[in-house]
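Researcher: Here's the sequence for the chain we discussed earlier.
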Amino acid sequence: MKELVGRIVRALVDFPEEVEIQENEGTTMTLLQIRVSKEDVGKLIGKKGKNISALRIIVAGAGKGRRYMVEVLEENRPPPRNEHLQHDRDPGIDRASDGEGVRHQGWPERQDGEDE
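Model: Thanks. This is the structure I predict for it:
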């Protein structure tokens, strides 16, 4: 699968020599992480995400029953916020790594005496 994705991605970008694909196999699925040059990220994703969506559909169809997740890694960009947070029992509060609670907008405040 890594070779198929590499061939497709290299055909889409301007700097094919900078394409890196890492394949991480888990018990239930395989994660394909794609890294391209900074200039090529937009070409890989495409307008309104059409290129990356098409690539994910191809990977799902070629997977032969195995689940695959395709992820585009961007350089100099922190990981998504949810990877740094531990979820509290209150769905409206996330606990950051420093232990401070962060209330999401739109979640109602918890009233004293409410069950968790």
